[in-house]
Amino acid sequence: MNAFTFMFLFFLTAHVAVQLWLARRQVAYVASARASVPPAFAGVVTPSEHAKAADYTVAKQRLGMFEVGFDTVVLLWLTLGGGIAQIETLVGQLGVPPLISGTLLILAVFGCVALLSLPFGIYRTFSLEQRFGFNHTTPAVYVADLAKGVALGLLLGGLVAACVLWIMSALGDSWWLGGWLAWTVFTLALTWAWPRVIAPLFNKFTPLEDPALRSRIDALLERCGFHASGVFIMDGSRRSSHGNAYFTGLGREKRIVFFDTLVSSLAPPQVESVLAHELAHFRLHHVPQRIVVGILASFAGFALLGWLAGHAWFYFSLGVPEASDAAALILFLLVAPVFTWPLTPATAAWSRRHEFQADAFAASNSDARSLSEALVVLYRDNASTLTPDPVHSAFYDSHPPPAIRIERLNALLRTAPSTPAAV
User: Fold this and answer.
1) Cβ 58 vs Cβ 31: under 8 Å
2) Torsion of Cα atoms, 326 then 152 then 302 then 337, to 10°
3) 352, 116 Cβ separation under 8 angstroms
4) What are the residue ranges spanned by the domains of the chain?
5) Over the stretch 23-43, which tens digit does the pLDDT of each residue have?
6) Residue 268: C-alpha distances to residues 211, 241, 272, 324, 368 (Å)
7) What whole-number distance in Å separates Cα of residue 129 and Cα of residue 63?
């Protein structure tokens, strides 16, 4: 066993051990608090609703633990077990040009990964989500979504893979810079096109028609100096009873999207406060910051891949006997998460900081009390645990723990009462 193989196994073992340890902590902590509603939520969340959230969280964690073990076995099979080499041999028998065979190899490997993980997705939708009353997806809708996802993956994934492989063969040692530029352009173009071209393939988006709510939203957008191409309701209830809201798109193609489940469960002032929170991520430049960080991270990734691809040990250390451009891309995409997982707590903490800032912005531009009430409704309706394990939360959670988040909003109410928006 050479040094890089040992390093790979060490980081992989550490990652699996930490994931399972944190999952076990989360299960034990949430289960121990199952029978007691936190004081901040007493009178709003019933004991049965709190118990349901605990059971739901525990069920998801236990399924996640099985997935961790399964994914680890698949990764070891593809790399040290020779799976990539086996698939490459099969593709090579087609006798097609290198660019096509390389693209097919990439699609075949990640197609295998997706196919092997499909049972978990089916179980999650039709067993776990069904058991807790969230699933509205029919088998026909699930199959249609799957077919569309596969078609998009083959089309977009194939185009990107072929483009990068061509750049690798055409630009010599500096290929990684051209590959990074192509990837950046593709990512930005996809973000811009998503709301108009791709998202409507899966969901129906209709303009918001409620005049009172639209008036509130228009007033909020004007106060915040924000432009959006439209406010839309998405038929999220067709697949799930979970509620959410989000922004999508770039430039003047930005859209505000509310799940129909969210609009039906919140009062207009609460919807406005949720929107104010989402607006904050743009007004406080959180979204541009994340885009820039993503671009810089991809720059570092392509530079590292450009160096690794030129060393034979990178391939044979991970179970691939012969170097190739396609194998370099596959190995990097599969193995990079094994080495970068220690960064997870830092990125989660950065995200939680943004969430606190967005809450403060919403409290000053709408109504802090309405936002607090809306969050409680969303926690309750989505069966989000109100008592996450602090260590698990600090490591993974992109949003602050519910009790801490509500207390921050209550503190804003006590120190600087917000001015409600005009009806």
Assistant:
1) yes
2) -90
3) no
4) 3-172+311-338
5) 999 999 999 999 999 988 988
6) 11, 19, 6, 57, 14
7) 12
